[in-house]
User: What shape does this take?
Amino acid sequence: MKTRVTVNGEGYERDVEPRMLLSDFLRHELGLTGTNVGCEHGVCGSCTVLLDGEPVRSCTMLAVQCDSRRLTTVEGLACDEKLHGLQDAFSACHGLQCGFCTPGMLMTLLPIYNEARRLNDDEIREAISGNLCRCTGYQQIVEAARKALGEAADMADPCVESRA
Ligand code: FES
Ligand code: FES
Assistant: This one.
């Protein structure tokens, strides 16, 4: 089936089997291997991408379901060779060990970052509760999320500039 998608702002058209998973489409058809596949049945969250701005599990969606829709993968985060604020914070706070879960963590947090919502640690834990980290470095991941979300909220707060 002809499938047209916009991924990270770029348009693609491919003829795909109706049964092809979105995760396989991204990795094998488009070569976007940043989206990791762990459990392949919607449990670990490592394959999370944004579909029209909302996080989805790409291992439980079909590529054809995304026809004419907009996707964002982890490759869409860095811009002009500059890391995204979430990536910066994960690096600064040692929020990754092997890095396998990291793309999914970042994409799960991205809509919250974009909305400039400041979350407390309990809310951050709740937000990433669908993402498993096999290295179990959750404390640093929470610290990274707190840092990034706090900075995004500060930037969105018009009072911050006048206070600075
Ligand atoms: S690979 Fe999709 S949720 Fe685990
Ligand atoms: S950093 Fe290794 S799985 Fe999370």
Q: What stands out?
A: The chain has a mean pLDDT of 95. The chain is about 35% helix and 15% strand. The first strand starts at residue 2 and ends at 7.
